[in-house]
Amino acid sequence: MRRPGQPAQPPSRQPSPRVLVPPATAPGAAAPGAAAPGAAAPTITDAAEHPNEIADAATAGPVPTFGLLIVFLGTLVVPFDSAVNVAFPDIIRSLALPIPDIQWVVIAYTLTYAALMLVFGRIGDLVGHRRIFLAGTACSTLGFIACGAAPGFGALLAGRVLQGVGAAMALSCGPALATLLFPESQRTRILALYTMVFGIGGVMGSAFGGPLVAEWGWPAVFWARAPISFAAFVLAWRLPRPVIVRTDARFDALGAALLVLAVAALLLSLNQLRADAMKAIGFGIVCVAASVGFVRWERRSSAPVIDLGLFRDRDFALVNVAHVALNLAGFSVMLLVPFYLDRFGGLGPTGMGLVLTASNLGLMAASPLAGRLAGRVPPRVLAVAGAAMMGCGQMAIAWAGGQLSLPLMIAGMLLQGAGLGLFQVAYFDIVTGAVPRQDRGVAGSLVMMTRTVGVVTGATLLMLLFQSLRAGAGLPAAEAFLTGFTGTFALAAILPAVVVIVGLACGWGRRG
Predict the structure, then answer these.
(1) Which one of 1.20.1250.20, 3.40.50.300, 1.25.40.10, 3.10.490.10 gives the CATH number of domain 311-512?
(2) DSSP string covering 214-280
(3) Whose CB has fewer CB within 10 Å in the chain, the N or C terminal residue?
């Protein structure tokens, strides 16, 4: 059995896809795809005969670094969405909303892009990642405009759905586009830089969200991103067109529909867990039924959305579960630290926003470091190290909360973010290395989907845990809050600790 991190092999139950490979051109010859006098005709061959074609085909376009910056620009607007959290109070006041209704601003967006992520990744593998990325940046631009100009709550939610569709398209094909711009030997370094972009976007959202809302109101957090997304759309036309044409292209519509239903029902069930137990159970039943139907159908499908046989590899299955668990634990920072700072930090909105950038700054610093280490350290070792750092960071935040020490809390957030950055780069490397190259859109989508499921699950379970610990403390309000805060972070630290223990038990600590 192949272990993740080793070269991928195409699934044995499917023949190698047929691809159109253009003949090599001499310097100064016509660009791939253009007709040149006397040029030889493209030939049909097996991908297995050209193992580097899919990875290196896109390098024939404009300067790869410029193309990479275009992909990063289109991706940056997604993590910048952390600025919307800062705008919640102004949205509630301006639209005269009950406080519980603000959750639908988050649900309409995250449910849409999480449910569609793998589907768009598969479509990108079939019709071309560039096409889906272009459509994604266009949808995102229209979504930002619709949200910024929304006259009421319903229009805002419709804009958020459109924004979610755009995010699903851009994120599902962004990693594939980025890695296929460069030789396969540079894949891990490019994925590390791609992970760093999420840290940059998170820092920008936290740092600039407050000033934008203070100066121009809540619509500004959407209007500010529209020109960035539009610029990415315009520039993305310069991304190289794929020279690989898959002639085995078939789309599993039923499997895609079952997957979307299963993910949407899961997220709705988690969302309703605190508010309405019966609705949560109902959505849970739908999720289980759709999941069973999806698995049974995909096992019979000749062109599945994702090859479920990959999950029979113990390490591949474990690293995906670990990614969900670490993102669940990591969301405790964005969920609870803002309330802590509001009560005990003595900071204004701008100061709070700057403190909240600490985790993303750690992720920004660790991601390129992980890319440099990847050539010398196996990805499984980096994953264990990242999980250990994250667990230590979680415990440092818990201890700092009890001591009312803001410097220690910032240090803990930096360590937590750095650990998550190391793990995510290693996880990206493992998944994209295990999935066949022609399915790289699915690989990138899987990474993004597991991240989102972890965050949404954390938003529900961590808040339930915090409320239970606070209510059961039997102390005055301030002391009860601290009890809930420190207890939640300490218990959340168990998840990365479990990942470390299980990983070491499975041999992830060995360098060989």
Answers:
(1) 1.20.1250.20
(2) HHH-TTHHHHTTHHHHHHHHHHHTTSPPP--EETT----HHHHHHHHHHHHHHHHHHHHTTT-HHHH
(3) C
Non-local (6+) Cβ contacts of 472 within 8 A are none
What's the whole-model pTM score?
0.80
**pLDDT tens digits, one per residue of 436-458:** 888 888 888 898 889 888 988 88
3-state secondary structure of 8: coil
Instruction: Tally the C-alpha atoms within 13 A of residue 107's C-alpha that lie toward its C-beta.
Output: 15
pLDDT (tens digit per residue) in 29-39: 333 333 333 33
Phi (first) and psi of residue 418, to 5 degrees: -65, -40
CA 458 to chain centre: 15
245-246 and 18-21 beta bridge pairing: antiparallel
Domains 54-245 and 311-512 share a fold: yes
CA dist 77 and 200 (Å) reads: 10
Mean pLDDT of 232-248: 76
Q: Where are the domains of the chain?
A: 54-245, 252-302, 311-512
Instruction: Name the fold adopted by 54-245.
Output: Growth Hormone; Chain: A; (1.20.1250)
pLDDT at 152: 92
